[in-house]
Every structure is written in C-alpha cells, then in structure tokens.
Design brief:
This protein is α+β, with helices and mostly antiparallel strands and 283 residues long. It is 27% helix and 24% strand.
C-alpha cells in the first residue's frame, strides 16, 4: 500500500472542480493586471471569484497567512503578502499563487505575468520557467519516479539558460508537494535532482509541480514578515505551478483551463504547453 494519499477517480473529479476554480481565478487576475493596480486589489478580486464559485480560499488563514493569494513582484520569489500599498508599475513581473478548496479537496496553481510592456529578457525568463513546468509534468506518469519530474524541470531550466546565454537558477530549497485533502502533503517534489530516484508514481497520486526560476544565483532570503521570499542578489524571478493527477493514461493537469484535450498530457515527453505558492514548499 502506498504511504501517500491515493485518490479515487471520484475524488480526482472533485479536485478537478477545485482546479477549475483556481484556473478561472488566475485568468481573471491576469486580465486585471495593469500598471497602477495594487496587489491588495488583486487579492480582493481573487477572494470574490473563489467564493462566487462556491469554493473556499486555500491560503487564507493557512498557518496564519492573511490573504487569499500570494503576489510576488520582481525579486520576490514566492509568498509575498498582498497590500494596498504595493502598486504595480509598467515593466514589473508579478507571480500570483492561488489555491481553492471544493468539497474538502484542494487545487493549487501559479502564474507569472508581465505588467504592461516588459523587456525581452524578462519575457524569456517567464518562457523558460513555464516550459520547465510542462517538461516536468510530462514525466508525471505511472511507474516513473519523483526524480524523473525533478530532473526534467532542472534540465529544461539549464537548457534554456544555455540557449539564451542567461544565468537562470532554480530558487534554492523550494519545492513542489503532494496535494489532495490537504494543500501541502507528502511527497515533496524537488525541482532538481537525478532521474530514477524518489517515490514511485502510481495512479491516484496528485502533485503540485512548481518551478521557481531566478535570473541570478538562486539564493533566497525570507523577509521580516516571515513570509516573503526574495532573491539574495536582487535577481528577478518567475513561478509557474499546476496541480497534476497521476492517472493510468498519464498526467491530468487539474488546474489547466478546459478545452485542451481534457488536459491529459500526450505520451511524448518533448512537450511544451502553456498559457500565460510555507515550509520549504511553494504555494
């Protein structure tokens, strides 16, 4: 018997419902982002959207976290708290991490969005991070191991950095996680490491896979609020995340929008899909 939570098909369908709430909320937030809006305003929009869908925010109150979403800007990697005082400016990058609960089951996802016009270098950072997420997702198959996911993410980030002559690094110490009846569960899902290692993947497992890529050394510092994680060298960061179920047919991306082949990833491993979250996990 697996030591990890194994969901029934019916439970995964409820997680899919939670995932669609998260996907819809992130889509609404992406449309609302513009120079001048505050991260506090984005948080209010997120809570309104989640509750209007009949769901509950996963983050609010979690270990004392005071908001519905995390809104990490520029050199903030993850877990930044929204406020009415943080106003977005043209050229910023904002990472939004969002979670929702439906019927006791969680969905968790993150996107990074450019505010107004962003530089080519920052656009490429976003592309590299999101592509690494999808490479990791492609390895989330029955019979594989967590290390296969980790290695795929790491190799994708390295390849993107070499291709673009950029110093991309994965944020040190921050990982994805299991998810289901709780937001953060075993197993941990590192963003780097050798393939063929770690727990074996079996149908019914669900993982939150979430690379956090920085343009710099990868070292991080937690600020005095005990939540906000920033890069030590001031390098800007990107963060993308999806909740993914392991099924007999391969990975099912529970937090992807509807209409993408039921969001079950095709068998080929060379996939690059996409659109435009304490402890040492992400969101």
């Amino acid at each position: 018997m697996s030591r990890f939570e194994i969901k029934t098909p019916a439970q995964l369908e409820v997680m899919r419902a939670a995932g669609l709430v998260v996907a819809g909320t992130l889509g609404t937030l992406a449309q609302a982002i513009e120079p001048g809006i505050t991260t506090g305003e984005l948080d209010r929009i997120a809570e309104r959207e989640i509750r209007a869908a009949g769901a509950t925010p996963s983050f609010k109150g979690y270990q004392g976290y005071p908001a519905t979403i995390c809104t990490s800007v520029n050199d903030e990697v993850v877990h930044a708290i929204p406020t009415q005082h943080r106003r977005l400016r043209d050229g910023d990058l904002i990472s939004i991490d969002c979670g929702a609960i439906v019927g006791g089951w969680h969905g968790d996802a993150a996107i990074t969005v450019g505010v107004g016009a962003i530089t080519r270098e920052h656009a490429e950072l976003l592309q590299a991070c999101e592509a690494a997420l999808w490479q990791g997702i492609a390895q989330a198959r029955p019979g594989g191991r967590i290390g296969d996911v980790s290695h795929a993410v790491e190799q994708a980030v390295r390849a993107a950095g070499q291709r673009r002559g950029a110093g991309y690094r994965l944020a040190e110490g921050y990982t994805g996680h299991g998810i289901g009846s709780q937001m953060h569960m075993d197993p941990s899902v590192p963003n780097c490491g050798p393939p063929g290692r770690g727990p074996r993947l079996v149908p019914g497992m669900a993982l939150a896979i979430e690379p956090m890529v920085v343009a710099g050394r990868g070292e991080t510092v937690v600020l005095a609020d005990d939540w906000t994680v920033v890069t030590a060298d001031g390098g800007w960061a990107a963060h993308f995340e999806h909740t993914v179920a392991i099924t007999p047919d391969g990975p099912w991306v529970l937090t992807a929008i509807a209409g993408l082949g039921d969001n079950r990833v095709p068998q080929q491993s060379g996939i690059e899909r996409g659109g435009s979250t304490p402890g040492h996990t992400g969101g």
